[in-house]
Amino acid sequence: MNTYDNLRINPVEKSNWNDFEDFFEAKGILRNCWCMAWRMTKEEKKNNTPACRKEYIKARVQAGIPIGLLAYGNERTIAWCAIAPKESYTNLGGNDSLANIWSLTCFYILPEYRKRGFVHLLIEAAKQYAKDNGGQYLEAYPVAEDSPSYRYMGFVRTFEKEGFSHTGKAGSRRNVMICQLAAA
């Protein structure tokens, strides 16, 4: 089977919320986080349960706020990538002096589709999505491959291959890497 047959990558919007919901509810840890760890406001953190996190992310989608991309293969959802304007996140670290930065914070690829290059396709789609929506830079926060945590944020070597440059650290494990999308 060619893993790239029938592949399509679309932003999460009202029209495909059910696909996002089904994907997250079926995948254990995703069902708990709803990709809200880096997005929650102080007020939202007061009610920090899986059910609340789901409602917070749903409210963002309903309001038309970008949250990320879903990859579909053979008519099923096979992967997720969190990509949004940096100002929609909190406490990521990185460069705050540049304008129009988008942040790429999370990946989840179904186990049977891993190690087939999908992460590179998701990064390329994220670059285009951010650029199409006015992003001038895409910032990521990957870790070393031997990191015991934050592995869902990707690996440094992957982002190096995608043309990202090191700009510093955010905490002890996360590296800050950036890619220019458009002329500043």
Give a written overview of the molecule.
This protein has 184 residues and is an alpha+beta fold. It has a single domain, classed as Aminopeptidase, CATH 3.40.630. The chain contains six helices and seven strands, in the order βααααβββαβαββ. It has helices at 17-25, 29-33, 42-45, 50-62, 118-132, 156-161; strands at 8-11, 68-73, 76-85, 101-109, 137-140, 165-170, 174-180. Strands 1-2-3-4-5-7-6 form a seven-stranded mixed beta sheet, sandwiched between helices. It is globular, with a radius of gyration of 16 Å.
Key structural traits:
alpha+beta; seven-stranded mixed β-sheet; Aminopeptidase; 184 residues
In short:
The chain is α+β, with helices and mostly antiparallel strands and 184 residues long. The protein is 28% helix and 25% strand.
Q: CATH H-level name... which superfamily?
A: Gcn5-related N-acetyltransferase (GNAT)
Question: Which architecture per CATH?
Answer: 3-Layer(aba) Sandwich
For the sheet with most strands, the description reads: 7 strands, mixed
Count of structural domains: 1
The CATH class name reads Alpha Beta
Number of helices: 6
What name does the CATH topology carry? Aminopeptidase
Q: Round the mean pLDDT to the nearest integer and report it.
A: 90
- N/C terminus separation: 42 Å
* Helix fraction bin: 25-40%
Q: Based on helices, strands and strand pairing, what is the structural class?
A: alpha+beta
Low-confidence stretches: none
Range of strand content = 25-35%
Task: Tell me the series of helices and strands, N- to C-terminal.
Answer: EHHHHEEEHEHEE
Number of strands: 7
Globally, the shape reads globular
What is the radius of gyration computed over CA atoms, rounded to a whole number of angstroms?
A: 16 Å
Strand order of the main beta sheet, please?
1-2-3-4-5-7-6
